Amino acid sequence: MHGRAKRISVFGGSKVDNELYDEAVEAGKCLAELGFEVLNGGYEGVMEAVSKGVVQGGGSPVGVTCDIFGSASPNKYIQKEIRCSTLYSRLETLIENADGYLVFPGSTGTMTEYILTFEIASKFILPAPVIFWKGFWQSIVHQIQRLIVVGDYRIETSCRPDVSHLNIEFAYNLKDLKTLLHKYL
Q1: What distances in angstroms separate CA 1 from CA 4, 106, 165, one per listed residue?
Q2: CATH at residue 12
Q3: What is the pLDDT of residue 149?
Q4: Is 37 a domain residue?
Q5: What is the pTM of this model?
């Protein structure tokens, strides 16, 4: 008996330019062609673009939507909707139901998603890879990694946490993305 397909949650902004939209479409297509089930926030921008790509790649995108956004409808490419009552339950669904994460540029919502994912991963709760698309978040991610490693400056070096288990990576193109997905999943 076969297990379920590996799942990737994709985080990214609702406002994107044409270049990022096209890149997200190609990434979604790539994920579907590699056999991943793709979850995302279900609305516009990166979420729509990735969903469009998943459909082009033969997959069925899952939109994890939220009552907090009122009457907003999922984008037209979403084939299954998981409706959550709160923003917290939406985040929980996106994080706990994935085997890996792909993070595109975005704003504070995207930052909240990946910081919570990062925090859970840093506590050994989540061994899944977090792959950032290009370098948009690079300086923030490196600062967070530094905080985890260095932590409180008063802590002795021997007490600092081992973060070698963190699977934080950057993909600058589809070849990088495929390589990292094969490496971890």
Answers
A1: 10, 39, 30
A2: 3.40.50.450
A3: 62
A4: yes
A5: 0.89
Structural domain boundaries enclosing 57: 7-179
Look-up of token digits 């905080």: 147
**Backbone phi, then psi, for 56, in 5-degree steps?**
-60, -30
Phi and psi for 86 in degrees, rounded to 5? -130, 160
CA distance 2 to 173: 31
In tens, the pLDDT along 20-62 reads: 999 999 999 999 999 999 999 999 999 999 999 999 999 999 9
Distance CA(53)–CA(39), nearest Å, equals: 12
The structural domain count of the chain equals: 1
**Residue 105 resides in a domain:** yes
In a domain, 2, yes or no: no
Residues 6+ apart with CB under 8 A from 72: 43, 65
Identify any residues that bridge with 76 across adjacent strands, giving them in sequence order.
Answer: none
Q: Which residue has the tokens 């709760």?
A: 125
99 within domain boundaries: yes
